[in-house]
Specification:
Length: 344
């Protein structure tokens, strides 16, 4: 496939995949949830338990800025604000004349990668929180909305639909192609050492070796595949979202975390020894948040009856809190909220 000559088909494909991902990861339920219920009793023998569940109405969260502040998007156009969890104070961080659809804070909390765009593709920037300046790191409308992640404190990785390959961009705006274009999409690529992992539009998991220039098919029917921070373990969700497994770098199962109804929205703890994930409820009364202890393989339910959530859930830098971006639909209008779960 010549991606440049078939941009229309690719954009349509991106739109379908984003919608499909949203439906599978998040849209398990079509009902209204009016309040959070009390957490269930913690699993016997586990050292994980929730101490508090707090819901903040009418904010649209994007992640943690630090232990006491999250970033949210609001306004017309959508801009990025800092929101203080203790005081409720909002402070404008990134102003733009276009909607900011997506943002991710760097591991050292000094930079924010964000994407301007309101349709299916957008333009990526890195914002310096010290200098309060932004630098463009992608071409105009080059990447799918919701794509782009930090590889470390100094660079981001993303798929370019216009060129069809995988790129990294640094804090100075310089970019380099590190994986060649493939047939179709390379959804949300990740880099671990000298390996690039990506899921194709056929939901096949591939590994590209930067050194040998070889591409290897690892798994069929894979929806998500993401590493812990140190790259020692990978979390894998199968197509259909009925299972969540811990695997090695080649996709071989080490541990089954969950098997049942829909699962998604998983997130590794900062230390990499825990995995938080959401599953749909058999009773149809909202999603449930679990935390798995990788060393034991045991999972604990820490919150119940959570409204529909977005693809990402976030651990705070200390690993003591989890942020769940959530929404409800009332009278054809989306109502956003942030759910903060504190973990002892």
């Amino acid at each position: 496939m010549n991606i440049r000559s078939n941009q229309k088909n690719i954009i349509i494909g991106i739109g379908f995949l984003l919608i499909f991902q949203g439906v599978l990861v998040l849209g398990f339920h079509g009902y209204k949830v009016n309040k959070l219920l009390k957490q269930d009793t913690v699993m016997s023998g586990s050292n994980i338990k929730p101490s508090k569940v707090k819901r903040i109405e009418e904010i649209n969260p994007l992640g943690w800025l630090d232990e006491e502040n999250i970033i949210i998007k609001k306004g017309h156009p959508l801009n990025i604000y800092k929101y203080n969890l203790k005081t409720g104070e909002e402070c404008l961080l990134i102003a733009s004349e276009k909607d900011i659809s997506y943002a991710a804070v760097s591991p050292n909390r000094r930079y924010i990668f964000y994407v301007e765009g309101s349709e299916l593709t957008g333009t990526g920037y890195i914002y310096n929180l010290t200098t309060n300046k932004a630098i463009q790191v992608t071409e105009l409308d080059e990447i799918p909305l919701g794509i782009g992640r930090w590889t470390d404190d100094k660079s981001v990785i993303f798929f370019s639909y216009t060129k069809g390959g995988v790129f990294v961009a640094g804090l100075d705006g310089r970019r380099e192609q590190i994986a060649p274009k493939a047939q179709g999409l390379m959804r949300d690529p990740i880099m671990v050492g000298d390996k690039i992992y990506y899921v194709s539009d056929e939901y096949k998991l591939y590994k590209y070796d930067i050194l040998t220039k070889e591409t290897k098919l690892l798994l069929q029917e894979t929806a998500e595949f993401n590493p812990s921070r140190d790259g020692s373990n990978f979390a894998k969700v199968s197509l259909g979202r009925k299972s969540l497994d811990i695997t090695d770098e080649n996709g071989e199962r080490r541990l089954q975390i969950y098997h049942g109804v829909g699962v998604g929205g998983f997130s590794w703890s900062p230390c990499g020894n825990k995995l938080a994930y959401l599953v749909s409820s058999d009773s149809g009364k909202g999603e449930q948040l679990y935390i798995a202890q990788i060393s034991s393989g045991k999972s604990v339910k820490v919150a119940d009856n959570i409204p529909q959530s977005f693809p990402y859930i976030f651990w705070s830098p200390s690993g003591k809190k989890i942020l769940v971006p959530a929404y409800e639909k009332n009278d054809d209008k989306q109502k956003f909220a942030a759910i903060i779960i504190e973990i002892e």
